[in-house]
């Protein structure tokens, strides 16, 4: 096995995510360390924050990036949080929106049931425990005399919310995510 192959295998085994900033320092994406080093090597990005050590090769040492900044402005649409089970649970903090029970075993409920014209949108879906979902059934809140703890809404599309799941292992990213 050649030394270059060993370096790539070593790099992939120590793979961490890297925050990618646009030319105006707006957070736009997350990539692998391998990809970030490639962008830096090709002069498409510059290193903003190291803090993870060094990658040793035969001829040279390269800093392991934590945050990189693209050299040129990339126009990309504002990221939106996708409507998915995982994101609905995250938005509602794994809490039943009818009784307030905090659990990992929740279901998705349509506030206005689909068969009564309710859409599958952020404003019409909530998390519910199996008991409350069964009690409500295919009826509206008025029919069952049930109340929602909080009105459903789309989560914020801020950088802090979108990249929140990576903050625990990458605390150094916080200053770059605030305000976007």
UniProtKB/TrEMBL annotation:
The organism's place on the tree of life at top rank: Bacteria
InterPro entries: HNH_5 (IPR029471), HNH_nuc (IPR003615), NA-targeting_endonuclease (IPR052892)
Residue stretches making up the HNH nuclease domain: 83-134
Pfam family, one: HNH_5
Protein name, UniProt field: HNH nuclease domain-containing protein
Source organism: Anaerolinea thermophila
């Amino acid at each position: 096995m050649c030394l270059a192959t060993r370096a790539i295998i070593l790099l992939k085994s120590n793979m961490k995510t890297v925050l990618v900033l646009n030319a105006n320092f707006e957070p736009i994406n997350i990539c692998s360390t391998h990809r970030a080093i490639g962008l830096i090597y090709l002069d498409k990005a510059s290193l903003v924050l190291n803090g993870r050590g060094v990658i040793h090769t035969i001829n040279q040492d390269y800093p392991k990036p934590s945050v990189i900044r693209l050299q040129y402005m990339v126009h990309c649409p504002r990221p939106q949080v996708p409507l998915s089970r995982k994101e609905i649970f995250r938005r509602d903090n794994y809490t039943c929106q009818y009784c307030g029970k905090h659990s990992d075993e929740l279901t998705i409920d349509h506030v206005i049931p689909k068969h009564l014209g309710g859409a599958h949108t952020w404003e019409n879906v909530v998390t519910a425990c199996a008991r409350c979902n069964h009690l409500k059934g295919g009826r509206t809140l008025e029919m069952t005399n049930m109340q929602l703890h909080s009105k459903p809404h789309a989560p914020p599309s801020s950088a802090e919310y979108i990249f929140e799941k990576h903050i625990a292992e990458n605390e150094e990213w916080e200053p770059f995510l605030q305000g976007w």
